[in-house]
Structures are given as C-alpha cells and as structure tokens.
C-alpha cells in the first residue's frame, strides 16, 4: 500500500499465520504453510480463535464452558504442532484468543509485525471458512497489509508439494 512502511524481517524468515479450527481446509492450509516454511527457512504461527457465541450463558456455567473451550483450543493447537514438527521439522508458535475470528486475526497481524503472510483454507463445497475468507479479502486494502494466501481445501499432499 502506498505510504505504508514495509514490515522488516530477517532475510529468509517469512512467518506464515494459520488460523486453526476443526475443518479439513484448515489442515490443508496448515500443511501448505509448513511446506512453504520448510522450503524457505520460514516460521509458522498458529492461532485458534474461540468465538464469543460459543458460550452465551451466565455465571459459573459460562466460566466452566469458557475454560473447556480454551482447553480444547490448546489441545487442537498441540495436536497440530506435534504433527507438523514430526512431518516438517517446523516448531510453530501457538496462541489462543477469544473474540470475533476475523477481527482477532487482523489485530494479531497488526500487533505482530513479524507475520508476513496469512494462509487460509477454502472449503471446497463453498461453506464454512469461506465467509471468513470473503470478509478478510474485503479488508485487504483497509486493514490487512500482508499477502493473503487462499489454499483450496481439497488439495492433496502431492499437489501441495508441487506448488510450494
């Protein structure tokens, strides 16, 4: 963007941000990011966003549900981190946040200037994560000042290796 100061980064240290959830397209995006990081000497950062509508109750029930959601998020991140380290030798950074998914991703990117590329997986059937992709794509000229890579969620490893 004109007038926007470029993000500084050490040579060859591109950091890919991947938003983790339980979808297949998320796993495909993660594998893409890890392959790119492996091929470029880059890093991978994983974010799991717990959306507020996940628990709209009050009092101690809400607190218990929120803690369970955080535990599930941490477990999902740990599982992903273990898989990618074992297969790609990439040890990702991990963070759990609570809030609106799109705004939390944008805020994370704004606050961490070492993030260079946002990688999202597109649902092949046209649902799910595609709403997030649509919103973030509309923010490219407003708040998102790094490349947004959209990976088709149905790509197999052979195709992923070929394009990375």
Which term fits the overall shape? Answer: globular
Question: For the CA atoms, what is the radius of gyration?
Answer: 16 Å
- Helical content, roughly? 40-55%
Total count of helical runs of at least 4 residues: 5
Run of helices and strands: EHEHEHEHEH
Describe this structure in words.
With 164 residues, the chain is an alpha/beta fold. It has a single domain, classed as HUPs (Rossmann fold, 3-Layer(aba) Sandwich), CATH 3.40.50. The protein contains five helices and five strands. The mean pLDDT is 86.
What does the secondary structure layout of this molecule look like, with pairings?
Blueprint: E1 15-19, H1 24-40, E2 43-50, H2 59-88, E3 93-98, H3 101-111, E4 117-122, H4 130-138, E5 148-152, H5 157-163
Parallel strand pairs: 1-2, 1-4, 2-3, 4-5
Quickly list its features:
alpha/beta, Rossmann fold, 5-stranded parallel beta sheet, 45% helix
Gist of the model:
This protein is an alpha/beta fold and 164 residues long. Helices cover 45% and strands 18% of the residues.
